[in-house]
Give the backbone structure.
Amino acid sequence: MAIIVDKVQKKKDIALACKDLFVNNSLKDLTIAKIATNAGISKGSIYDYFQNKEEIVFELLRHMMLEHDEAKECKLKSVTTAKERVKIFAEFFYSDETKELREIYKDFISINLTAPNEHITSFQTECVNRYFNWMCNIIQEGIDKQEIIPKSIDIAKGLFALGEGMFISSSITNTIDDLQKELNQNIETIFSLIEVKK
Amino acid sequence: MAIIVDKVQKKKDIALACKDLFVNNSLKDLTIAKIATNAGISKGSIYDYFQNKEEIVFELLRHMMLEHDEAKECKLKSVTTAKERVKIFAEFFYSDETKELREIYKDFISINLTAPNEHITSFQTECVNRYFNWMCNIIQEGIDKQEIIPKSIDIAKGLFALGEGMFISSSITNTIDDLQKELNQNIETIFSLIEVKK
DNA sequence: TATAAATGACCAACAGTCGGTCATAAATGG
DNA sequence: CCATTTATGACCGACTGTTGGTCATTTATA
């Protein structure tokens, strides 16, 4: 009897329309009014689709991550060794292609640290868990192929956390001069320790 | 001609008076008015000492960290091996004694990720750099004592970042069941790789 | 015409400002 | 040495502008 909009699709449209806005502005400087204007709808309508500003960030992150994960999956297939794969994994934290995603990711971390939002984080929990598992699989494959020693599996999650920790540290304080260099050097060293000696 | 208050001391007093408030509330729920009431002064006076809410967090963090670092220094002296020292270092991320400090630390990370605040972060940069160096020294000492192999030094910063990354991940998403267990297991595994074989 | 979508005026809460008040230390003078 | 004046900085809270979020009303379409 009346138009029925696809709420799921519209949420996605609104979030993606604001991508540049979120990427180029600090979350604090962004107002609902600006976001609404940018998305070409009114302030009131924003609230028909999202409960607050934070939810828009989550929606945006969700879609950018899905896109990124597909690209990553492809790239991971293009190499064969566990070490190469781990390095590709670490690219998330410094490469140019993921610059925009990282900006949103920072907003996401920031939101969740200041104002934990139980019901929204489920997707992100899944997502990070998926990364942990992904890393575990890469390591396990390396073990199965006898590239690296069995106990490498014990530091699989740690490898991901190492990247995350360095990323946060270098974002917040300038305690790391060159994230890419530092990260890859750590990976090299760790692999020299876990590689099977022939 | 008039009373001159020790601004440095008063900043400290205000910040410390609000410790419980910051520890027990999410930063978002705290208003300047609440903070002022809690500190026993007026809203206007808050602005005589701080530019905004964020600065109070920084001030508070500064003092809690200094206190924590002294305690840590003591504790580090009580053990002898690099592995034990690294484990003590990692306690920051999960122990009961540092619970309050961690809450403020989370606020600090959150603030800096959403609204980088150039002129204030210098202390924190120093602080984190100090932690990095601290860890490097612990590792270097272990190398000098021939407990661990020379190239261990290449993952010293990584060891600290690993803790930070796991801490953030476990705070944000429940992707880590037991931070303490996981962290110590990673340290054990890494040390089993870098320990000098006799 | 019935109903969902979209709107923007509206409100309450908040951060941050500013003119005014007051206590006290210094200066003055008897 | 004490009484009085004066200068100053600490402190306050009313005020302003901005923002997040609501809701009665309007608009569009099937």
